[in-house]
């Protein structure tokens, strides 16, 4: 507020016709086209208008705000003052003024209240930097508005923040999955805490084929074989790309003659030893296998069986081995078992392999001691220091490690 003497009750100022008329005239001058007024004249007029608005009533400030909302280049200092006002006064600018800069919006988002941020979140054409600032507040109403704003631009970091938030607020998942910016890396992480409908959406949209990768790298496999697979970087990438899912080398060390034999043994009761053997024979690390076998939904079991070429009977055997009911208490089919079978029937082998290998890549190879410490500490602030699979592992295992 200016240094002029406050009104006796320090609330609303007295009403003077001259004041209202002068405010209108000054607003008229500020709104003149550039052909009628130069930048310096507009700035001087804006300064005078600002001094009057500091002591004006909310209704008077609102009238000026409405006039400015239609300008292509309203004076920055005047906009800043009105955006700092209450939500009723700032609304015309936040909802109708297309010419607000990112600087204006960021300042309002940081200094304004929840209603200001909700209005900003609903604006068209929000930039990534403004969206990231709004997401950083963690306010669910703001996040929900942003997710529903098709014109808001989401950065990769912003999407990862939303993935983390969806773990604690599952109702955000469906809206998050509709965002066109969401990448498979993030969707495969969301899968672990998603509900059945969201999981189906993830598999339909993000379980992609690796055919293009296989064509592009077809001649690299014999090259790497000639080098004895000594380069760990290329070996890891080629393992993700190759068509074969089962680990043939693991057969020689396994007490089972085949993956089918291990599944048959599991049917009578899954033990840790059998689970590890199934994981090895399927080309998975035991940590990945444990995640699949302990998932309450069962869909990962269907992905495992489809990716490794196992028949439906093997999926049923796994289900029984994990002591999961095929029939509900009322005699109807168990919904979880039905969903699992449906996933098996509808998902192509190559796409199932993509999902399974991504999980194996991200949930095991990335689990370095440093990463485990970061997960246990719940330190999301260092998430950018890690690779893509490491970030996926941090998100997917945060809940499990937090309980240990």
Would you mind describing this structure in some detail?
By secondary structure, the protein is mainly α. Helix 18 crosses helix 22 and helix 25 packs across helix 26. The longest helix has 17 residues. The protein is elongated and about 95 Å long. The chain starts with 16 loop residues before the first helix and ends with a helix. The N terminus is likely disordered.
Concise description?
The protein is mainly alpha-helical and 404 residues long. It has helices spanning 17-30, 39-54, 58-69, 76-83, 87-96, 102-111, 114-121, 128-136, 140-148, 156-168, 173-177, 184-190, 196-206, 211-216, 220-226, 232-241, 248-253, 259-266, 272-281, 286-294, 299-307, 312-321, 335-346, 349-365, 369-377, 388-402. It folds into two domains: 1-100; 212-402, no CATH class.
Note the total helix count.
26
Could you state the order of secondary-structure elements as H and E? HHHHHHHHHHHHHHHHHHHHHHHHHH
Mean of pLDDT: 84
Sheet with most strands: none
Low-confidence parts lasting 5 or more residues at pLDDT below 50? 1-12
Distance N to C terminus = 55 Å
Shape estimate = elongated
Query: Whole-number radius of gyration?
Result: 30 Å
Total domain units? 2
Sheet/helix structural class: mainly alpha
Hey, roughly how much beta strand do the residues contain? under 5%
Number of E-state strands = 0
Portion in helices: 55-70%
